[in-house]
Amino acid sequence: MWRSLLRAYSIDVSQMCRSGFTPRSHLAKKSRCKTAPTSCQNSLTILAFASLITCLTGCLNSEPMEKEVITLRLDTPSAGWSAEPLEAWKTDETIYCLFQLSPPDGMAAQVITTIESGMQLPRSEKAKKLVVLGKTWNWSSSDSIAFPESREGFLASLPDDASRIEIDQNEP
Predict the structure, then answer these.
(1) What does the alpha-carbon distance between residue 85 and residue 96 come to, in Å, rounded to a whole number?
(2) Pairing with 95, which of 8, 70, 76, 108 sits 20 to 30 Å away (CA)?
(3) Main-chain dihedrals φ then ψ at residue 96, nearest 5 degrees
Protein backbone atom coordinates (compact mmCIF):
# COMPACT_ATOMS: atom_id res chain seq x y z
CA MET A 1 0.00 0.00 0.00
CA TRP A 2 2.75 2.48 0.96
CA ARG A 3 4.69 1.59 -2.16
CA SER A 4 1.78 2.67 -4.37
CA LEU A 5 1.40 5.93 -2.38
CA LEU A 6 5.08 6.70 -2.74
CA ARG A 7 4.91 6.16 -6.50
CA ALA A 8 1.69 8.12 -6.96
CA TYR A 9 2.63 11.16 -4.84
CA SER A 10 6.42 10.94 -4.88
CA ILE A 11 6.74 11.50 -1.11
CA ASP A 12 10.24 12.20 0.19
CA VAL A 13 11.03 9.40 2.71
CA SER A 14 13.71 11.48 4.50
CA GLN A 15 11.05 14.05 5.45
CA MET A 16 8.92 11.26 6.93
CA CYS A 17 11.75 10.09 9.14
CA ARG A 18 12.33 13.54 10.59
CA SER A 19 8.65 13.93 11.43
CA GLY A 20 8.60 10.78 13.54
CA PHE A 21 7.18 8.42 10.89
CA THR A 22 9.17 5.24 10.47
CA PRO A 23 8.71 3.66 7.04
CA ARG A 24 8.70 -0.07 6.42
CA SER A 25 12.08 -1.68 6.06
CA HIS A 26 11.75 -2.39 2.30
CA LEU A 27 10.96 1.25 1.54
CA ALA A 28 13.83 2.90 3.36
CA LYS A 29 16.99 1.01 4.15
CA LYS A 30 18.55 1.58 7.55
CA SER A 31 22.26 1.56 7.99
CA ARG A 32 23.52 -1.44 9.89
CA CYS A 33 26.68 0.20 11.11
CA LYS A 34 26.41 1.68 14.58
CA THR A 35 28.22 4.79 15.60
CA ALA A 36 30.40 4.78 18.67
CA PRO A 37 29.15 6.89 21.58
CA THR A 38 30.81 10.24 21.88
CA SER A 39 33.22 11.06 24.68
CA CYS A 40 30.58 13.37 26.17
CA GLN A 41 28.13 10.47 26.47
CA ASN A 42 30.83 8.29 28.05
CA SER A 43 31.66 11.02 30.56
CA LEU A 44 28.02 11.46 31.53
CA THR A 45 27.56 7.72 31.96
CA ILE A 46 30.65 7.45 34.15
CA LEU A 47 29.57 10.49 36.19
CA ALA A 48 26.06 9.07 36.72
CA PHE A 49 27.49 5.69 37.77
CA ALA A 50 29.96 7.31 40.18
CA SER A 51 27.17 9.41 41.71
CA LEU A 52 25.03 6.32 42.21
CA ILE A 53 27.89 4.44 43.91
CA THR A 54 28.66 7.42 46.15
CA CYS A 55 25.01 7.76 47.16
CA LEU A 56 24.63 4.06 47.91
CA THR A 57 27.81 3.84 49.97
CA GLY A 58 26.79 6.94 51.91
CA CYS A 59 23.37 5.47 52.67
CA LEU A 60 24.83 2.14 53.70
CA ASN A 61 27.47 3.67 55.97
CA SER A 62 25.18 6.13 57.74
CA GLU A 63 23.72 5.12 61.06
CA PRO A 64 19.97 5.40 61.53
CA MET A 65 18.86 8.44 63.48
CA GLU A 66 18.15 7.50 67.07
CA LYS A 67 14.64 8.19 68.27
CA GLU A 68 13.19 8.73 71.70
CA VAL A 69 9.60 8.62 72.87
CA ILE A 70 8.31 11.50 74.97
CA THR A 71 5.42 10.23 77.08
CA LEU A 72 2.56 12.30 78.46
CA ARG A 73 0.76 10.91 81.53
CA LEU A 74 -2.18 12.99 82.69
CA ASP A 75 -5.10 12.52 85.09
CA THR A 76 -8.48 13.35 83.54
CA PRO A 77 -11.85 13.79 85.31
CA SER A 78 -13.58 10.98 83.42
CA ALA A 79 -12.87 7.95 81.27
CA GLY A 80 -12.73 8.40 77.52
CA TRP A 81 -10.40 11.41 77.30
CA SER A 82 -7.54 10.99 74.82
CA ALA A 83 -4.37 12.91 74.01
CA GLU A 84 -2.78 13.00 70.57
CA PRO A 85 0.68 14.37 69.69
CA LEU A 86 0.23 17.57 67.72
CA GLU A 87 3.67 19.09 67.08
CA ALA A 88 7.08 19.79 68.61
CA TRP A 89 9.21 22.95 68.75
CA LYS A 90 12.86 23.35 69.75
CA THR A 91 14.90 26.23 71.09
CA ASP A 92 18.54 26.38 72.15
CA GLU A 93 17.78 24.79 75.54
CA THR A 94 14.32 23.16 75.36
CA ILE A 95 12.07 20.97 73.25
CA TYR A 96 8.35 21.73 73.60
CA CYS A 97 6.06 18.77 72.97
CA LEU A 98 2.50 19.87 72.15
CA PHE A 99 -0.42 17.47 72.72
CA GLN A 100 -4.15 17.94 72.03
CA LEU A 101 -6.76 16.60 74.47
CA SER A 102 -10.08 15.30 73.14
CA PRO A 103 -13.12 14.78 75.39
CA PRO A 104 -15.00 11.50 75.44
CA ASP A 105 -17.75 10.87 72.90
CA GLY A 106 -21.09 10.46 74.67
CA MET A 107 -21.36 9.30 78.26
CA ALA A 108 -18.28 8.20 80.19
CA ALA A 109 -17.59 6.95 83.71
CA GLN A 110 -17.07 9.86 86.13
CA VAL A 111 -13.86 8.55 87.65
CA ILE A 112 -10.39 10.08 87.62
CA THR A 113 -8.49 8.27 84.89
CA THR A 114 -4.84 8.45 83.89
CA ILE A 115 -4.30 8.69 80.14
CA GLU A 116 -1.03 8.21 78.29
CA SER A 117 0.21 9.33 74.89
CA GLY A 118 3.62 9.27 73.25
CA MET A 119 5.48 11.41 70.73
CA GLN A 120 8.47 10.03 68.82
CA LEU A 121 11.27 12.56 68.25
CA PRO A 122 14.94 12.47 67.26
CA ARG A 123 17.07 11.82 70.37
CA SER A 124 18.26 14.99 72.07
CA GLU A 125 19.88 15.97 75.37
CA LYS A 126 17.76 19.12 75.58
CA ALA A 127 15.16 19.53 78.34
CA LYS A 128 11.63 18.43 77.38
CA LYS A 129 8.59 20.55 78.26
CA LEU A 130 5.10 19.06 77.88
CA VAL A 131 2.34 21.39 76.66
CA VAL A 132 -1.30 20.26 76.54
CA LEU A 133 -4.21 21.96 74.76
CA GLY A 134 -7.90 21.31 75.47
CA LYS A 135 -7.98 20.93 79.27
CA THR A 136 -11.41 21.94 80.64
CA TRP A 137 -11.11 21.21 84.38
CA ASN A 138 -9.68 23.42 87.17
CA TRP A 139 -7.20 21.04 88.80
CA SER A 140 -3.96 19.47 87.65
CA SER A 141 -2.04 16.46 88.84
CA SER A 142 1.27 17.73 87.47
CA ASP A 143 3.03 21.06 87.74
CA SER A 144 5.52 20.11 85.02
CA ILE A 145 2.84 20.28 82.28
CA ALA A 146 1.82 23.63 80.78
CA PHE A 147 -1.83 24.22 79.80
CA PRO A 148 -2.12 27.26 77.49
CA GLU A 149 -5.56 28.50 76.43
CA SER A 150 -4.89 28.02 72.70
CA ARG A 151 -2.27 27.01 70.15
CA GLU A 152 -1.87 30.66 69.16
CA GLY A 153 -1.17 31.57 72.81
CA PHE A 154 1.45 28.84 73.01
CA LEU A 155 3.13 29.96 69.78
CA ALA A 156 3.19 33.57 71.00
CA SER A 157 4.99 32.46 74.18
CA LEU A 158 7.78 30.68 72.26
CA PRO A 159 11.16 32.44 71.96
CA ASP A 160 12.11 33.95 68.61
CA ASP A 161 14.72 31.26 67.92
CA ALA A 162 12.14 28.41 68.10
CA SER A 163 11.85 26.08 65.12
CA ARG A 164 9.45 23.25 64.41
CA ILE A 165 10.57 19.60 64.63
CA GLU A 166 9.09 16.89 62.45
CA ILE A 167 7.46 14.16 64.52
CA ASP A 168 6.64 10.61 63.50
CA GLN A 169 2.87 10.21 63.20
CA ASN A 170 3.13 6.46 63.78
CA GLU A 171 2.31 5.24 67.23
CA PRO A 172 5.53 4.69 69.21
Answers:
(1) 11
(2) 76
(3) -100, 125
